[in-house]
Amino acid sequence: MTIPAVVSATDLSLTFHTSDGPVTALSDVTLDIKKGEFVSFIGPSGCGKTTFLRAIADLERPTSGSIEVNGQTPGNARKDRAYGYVFQAAALYPWRTIEKNVALPLEIMGYSKALKAERIARTLALVNLEGFEKKYPWQLSGGMQQRASIARALAFDADLLLMDEPFGALDEIVRDHLNSELLKLWKETQKTICFVTHSIPEAVYLSTKIVVMSPRPGRVTDIIESSLPAERPLDIRETPEFLAIAARVREGLRAGHSYEE
Ligand SMILES: Nc1ncnc2c1ncn2[C@@H]1O[C@H](COP(=O)(O)OP(=O)(O)OP(=O)(O)O)[C@@H](O)[C@H]1O
User: Fold this and answer.
1) What is the per-residue pLDDT for 10?
2) Can you give the pLDDT at residue 90?
3) N or C: which end of the chain has fewer CB within 10 A?
4) Long-range contacts for 91-95 (Cβ within 8 Å, ≥24 apart)?
């Protein structure tokens, strides 16, 4: 049985027209993301990682080539609520409680009170935030706020989760903890995850597939299928298999680096 592609990009190019001239954010990207994969995008600043996620989410239009989400245009997939989006900063509304923040997309979609309550309870349980429903974002730590924003992205129960460097601003211990929680959540929910990061260990620890990118123009320089087992305790990061994949990612990053800045 072939596993269906959730995201399929073919020769995707995307150029921004700025007052300083054209900026090619993505050049000829061809990539398939299958259902249930955990795919990390890694590369230096400006290599088009966010732009690729935004193209999936129908927030940017390709200049040439094509991209399909669940076999349809990103616009139609967006209407079908095909994905949840987690941003770099938690981006919670400070005047809303945690449960009201998670409820926001459901309110916009006109969910019934009962269905809203059920979804809020379920997603907050998934990210271990039961008991914090009535708190305001400022009453939570940075890691908890980011978990709340993951809960908000999960509220629709979309099969695809787009995560743009969600843990970049957190200290390493909190990040480690959230990495293993995210893996657990991914296994429990069997979602497809696209995850942007600057961290080699984070990419290797989390992913089934690592997409290495390089800037000017943004392109894919390597796609690594991970050979690590599904079960990943944090100390897997010291194993030879893990270090070998990390070395290959580093090599890909070096090869695409121009050092001219
Ligand atoms: N709306 C826009 N208008 C003009 N240029 C843009 C726009 N959005 C992105 N760019 C440019 O496109 C390139 C790719 O940007 P993008 O944000 O996708 O990179 P990134 O790899 O996600 O970077 P970072 O790691 O810093 O988030 C950059 O050169 C950026 O300046």
Assistant:
1) 97
2) 67
3) N
4) 91/149, 92/137, 92/145, 92/148, 92/149, 92/152, 93/137, 94/136, 94/137, 94/138, 95/136
Q: Are 79 and 159 in contact (CB under 8 A)?
A: no
Pocket test for ligand 1, best of 12, 13, 23, 162 (most atoms within 8 A of CB): 23
- This complex has an ipTM of 0.95
Asked whether 161 and 194 are in contact (CB, 8 A), the reply is: yes
In 3D space, the residue among 3, 55, 29, 61 whose CA is nearest the CA of residue 219 turns out to be: 29
Atom of ligand 1 at shortest distance to CA of 46?
19
Burial group, residue 136, by CB count within 10 angstroms (0-12, 13-18, 19+) = middle
Residue 43 is inside which H or E element, if any?
A: none
Put simply, whether the predicted model's pTM sits higher than 0.80 gets the answer yes
Q: What is the pLDDT, as a whole number, of residue 85? A: 82
Ligand 1 binding pocket mutation candidate from 12, 14, 15, 16 (most atoms within 8 A of CB): 16
Q: Which tokens belong to 96?
A: 């809303």
Contact, 145 vs 97, CB < 8 A?
no
Task: Report, as ranges of residue numbers, the positions in the chain whose pLDDT lies below 50.
Answer: 261
Tell how far the Cα of 28 is from the centroid of ligand 1, in angstroms.
16
Q: Is the CB of 48 under 6 A from ligand 1?
A: yes
- Number of helices (H), then strands (E), belonging to the chain: the values are 8, 9
Q: Is 24 in the pocket of ligand 1 (CB under 6 A)?
A: no
Q: Check if the beta carbon of residue 158 is closer than 8 Å to that of residue 82.
A: yes
User: Distance between CA atoms of 27 and 17, rounded to whole angstroms?
Assistant: 15
**Ligand 1 contact via 137 beta carbon (within 6 Å):** no
